[in-house]
Amino acid sequence: MASVTAVPSSANAPSLKGSGDDVSTSKGMEDSIHSFKVADLVIELSQTHKAKPDLTNLVFGTVFSDHMLTIEWTNAGGWQKPHIKPFGNLSLHPASSAMHYGVQLFEGMKAYRGADDKVRLFRPMLNMNRMAKSAERACLPAFDRAELVECIRRLVQVDLEWVPQSDSASLYIRPTFLGTERSLGVKKPSHALLYVILSPVGSFFSTGAKPVSLWADSKYIRAWRGGTGDCKMGGNYGASIYAQHEAVHYGCQQVLWLYGDDHQITEVGTMNMFLFWNNEKGEEELATPPLDGLILPGITRQSILELTRKWGEFKVCERYLTMADLRCALKEGRVKEMFGSGTACVVSPVGRILYQGENLHIPCQEDFPQLASRLMKELTDIQYGRTQSDWSVLV
Amino acid sequence: MASVTAVPSSANAPSLKGSGDDVSTSKGMEDSIHSFKVADLVIELSQTHKAKPDLTNLVFGTVFSDHMLTIEWTNAGGWQKPHIKPFGNLSLHPASSAMHYGVQLFEGMKAYRGADDKVRLFRPMLNMNRMAKSAERACLPAFDRAELVECIRRLVQVDLEWVPQSDSASLYIRPTFLGTERSLGVKKPSHALLYVILSPVGSFFSTGAKPVSLWADSKYIRAWRGGTGDCKMGGNYGASIYAQHEAVHYGCQQVLWLYGDDHQITEVGTMNMFLFWNNEKGEEELATPPLDGLILPGITRQSILELTRKWGEFKVCERYLTMADLRCALKEGRVKEMFGSGTACVVSPVGRILYQGENLHIPCQEDFPQLASRLMKELTDIQYGRTQSDWSVLV
Questions:
Q1: What is the pTM of this model?
Q2: Class assignment of domain B2-202?
Q3: N or C, which end of chain A is more exposed by having fewer CB within 10 Å?
Q4: Distance (Å) from the C-alpha of residue B235 to the closest C-alpha of chain A?
């Protein structure tokens, strides 16, 4: 497990400045000053190599690649050198604030291998911008987002063989950021650990792209105004597992999260939600709830909005949608499709919603409705390099 | 770091059945079947002993004793043997659900050394009951609460010298329970780790029992209906640090958490909240918000309610209190005292609240008002064994 080398930043790295999601579009210009740098990267290669898994029936996120990226921070010493090293357990102080007070956040992104054998990331700066926002909310230190993308690119380069040779599989990338304050006061951590692990994943739809069934009930609320629903902080997710079990108890696969007395539709499981319908005014409209602080600002969500607005074929709207709106539209035959969006699945059609004891059936021609199919194709074409796009960043 | 011994459960352990907080008062009678057992405890004593700290100016929760308790659980193998072993870092899989999805919870309790040199716990079964409830909400496995108290007693026995010889200091006990699922799916964990660490703490009021100042604003909400506000899950706390910083920015020490359009008063920092006043009907009343799912069911809160109801000297009420109620009462001179309650401080008087740009001054004769002082004395008399009570459990 030895072979420690300092490796300079690759000179031919594609500049993120040229991508569609320029770092300068987000606020923290100052964070470059005190951040870790890819130029300081220390790489310790693993002497052992795990066998690659058969992706056909692999459960999501259960197998990890040979290496990981770790970067430590202390209030006294600032950011330390980033390290790529053999994948292994973390040694954490038992008082770490990540484990007591949920001072933690994560991101989810993927590396895709195209038919041209090139490996691409999809809009990584959007993940970095969201991660920086989560870090601010969690009182974790700022970092240079472009430097982190570069470190992640280097990690994927080291484990390049782990990016599946398949246009229905990918290498899932999980940046994680923990408060490792070694004391029990509830406070801004004086120690932190940012790390990135990699997990090869098969198609989300390997077992068949069946539309999902949802349990819609206001008994559990995912997020609320003044909370952390728009950040990828761990507490949003752990609190959801109990509701997910109740959904399964009622014969549904996932939770449709509602909010407020009027039962606004917010998210689906861990996905953003889209409704394609003829709206109250009879306009053909793709609608998704607005980013009002309750909703996770999904990268796939944003990409779907941008793509469909570019098409200009129907109205695209960020707006509130209530269960009453949906029920009325179903009754009047105005609903065309409903689907969730996320990094794991791209899009996931909804087939049925159990709400107030009634099964609401959502139209789903041939299991995978037309708009969802088209979005799936356009997005994966970009991700796997079949379509040129400045949303792709070469590894 | 060797010396591994299996130690049978101490025969003369005081039965929890005799305490005021009988285990049978809470629901899960079934959880004894599959739980770990103190009889299986394996003790590995540390060969080194850290120096005890000077408690005078010690920051809360920064120093830990020589040993810790760890108990592992897997879905396949159930609960493993409990271990008392040298305090040290935990080795955790980097995909552990505790670190990604906030599948984590904790408890806070204390061991007190009396003038009689006996060491006591204060109502430990109440902590265990709350911990079991948090575990259910976090989808972590059930355990036998009486067995865990016994394991904790044994841990404190092993580190008995760490219980300070002082009636203004104590040994803080931090049970922690983590999901250690080694995969990235958001689901009920198949691995878990329960551990307990000990930290000697000085008087909360060593720097003088100054009344705290609070920032009351509805910008940040601690908890909401359908969430986890009544459980001691980590996500409740990490999300609060940002608001705490804003409170400090406005020249206040802690956050007074509001809820709803009518700005209900819910909690103070990490404490429950009490208002001692003449209510709208002119009745002398001790009031605290009800346990409606938003409020943490504090052990000190419950003890204060039980004590004052036993006194029978004034009305004791769990009721909603809004900022308008408080402002009106202050204007009319009906407020006697306001204080937070918690394990760390017992009671902590409130001196000032910044609300909608206005400083509300709460009466605070001699810094520590009369009812708060009396409660502080009665509770610490029990905790340190100066008053006999079935709330005390001998270690």
A1: 0.93
A2: alpha beta
A3: N
A4: 4
